[in-house]
Amino acid sequence: MSAKRYVKIAPSILSADFSRLGEQVAEVEKAGADLIHVDVMDGHFVPNLTIGPLVVRSLKKVTALPLDVHLMVDNPDQLIPAFVEAGADLITVQVEVCYHLHRTIHSIKQLGVKAGAVLNPSTPLSMLEHILPDVDLILLMSVNPGFGGQVFIPQVLGKLANLRRLVDDQGLDVELEIDGGVKLDNAAGIAETGADILVAGSAIFDNPQPAEMVKRMRAILNEI
Ligand code: DX5
Ligand code: ZN
Which of 74, 75, 87, 92 is an S-S bond match for 116, by CB 3.0 to 4.6 Å? Predict the structure, then answer.
């Protein structure tokens, strides 16, 4: 990448201490986080259960940062209005479960929030061919979704490079987000390959000082 880009940090609260959620979100906000990533899991699409609209509503009261709501659920259409009402600023849906992706993306936008599509590691970029101009963001999963603390799948770097080229060649205003296995030691490489937003869960919240980890990641990203 030639021009210097500002790469955003989105701490994922999946790895936060839920008994101190407000406090931890305030800490990472103060340390310079750009978004708060909220992982919604239904126990069907992924083998884990997490957060519903109630938590998003509470988060909205304690942070001014945009809430980036990642729906890892089988039926996103049913849940989207409740998450918008609760305060989501960006909603992403997995392409693997959307029979009518174009309709789902536009229904999110019609509710007044940003809309994005998510690809699992083994889902090809060709799934995006006819939707790219409609989305605000594409999220590439760099682990199989369901859990924090997994290892970054290296093939996703090539996928990211190809997607960056596609978006730039078409002159689209679409942000590229990477989610899963992002750590201090691979953040620069992922950003240089073309990511605009890095989600980091365990890298930030598995540390006793989450704010320190945000600052260290910011310093690394400022170097590129
Ligand atoms: C995984 C989630 C991620 C998760 C990332 O299914 O979508 O957002 O929180 O966690 P780390 O950064 O620990 O891989
Ligand atoms: Zn996520």
Answer: 92
